Amino acid sequence: MSDIAALPDLLERCRKICAQHGDRPDALIEILHAVQAEYGYLNDDALKGIAHALNISRAEIYGVVTFYHDFRREPPPAHVVKLCRAEACQAVGSEDLAQHAEARLLGHPSIGLEAVYCLGNCALGPAALVDGELKARLTPAAFDTLVEALEAKA
Ligand code: FES
């Protein structure tokens, strides 16, 4: 992933990504995903470059970016914990775990906490993805241990 702030050719790269999608405004979501996959998030310059290439307003793009939860306007945290909040995990304590996790991660900008709805690991809930690695039967104590391991990596 490139550092978006240190990229002098961001506008040109956005234009190329748009061209790869035929400069079609109806491909906006795919284009946004492609730019975000390359740079990690979508800053104002990226939105400006995409708007110019597609000949649409920045307001239109901003509406799409803010509507879909998957698009980021800020650099992503170093680590991401995706905690399952769906029914099977709720039945075994994921809501209490989520409250614990939110409190534990207060003041930790390097560790992001996101809700997801079923990771396909329902029999072993509460389940989570920690930097893409599936974790099962999480307890508050096990969550704290995971956070300590992430902090040690930072
Ligand atoms: S409900 Fe949590 S993994 Fe399926």
UniProtKB/TrEMBL annotation:
Instruction: Spell out the InterPro entries in the cross-references.
Output: NADP_DH_HndA-like (IPR028431), NuoE-like (IPR002023), NuoE_N (IPR041921), Thioredoxin-like_sf (IPR036249)
- One Pfam family assigned to this protein is 2Fe-2S_thioredx
What are the required cofactors? [2Fe-2S] cluster
Instruction: Keywords in alphabetical order, please.
Output: 2Fe-2S, Iron, Iron-sulfur, Metal-binding
Which family does the entry's similarity section mention? Belongs to the complex I 24 kDa subunit family.
Name of the protein this chain belongs to: NAD(P)H-dependent oxidoreductase subunit E
Query: Which organism does this sequence originate in?
Result: Sphingorhabdus buctiana
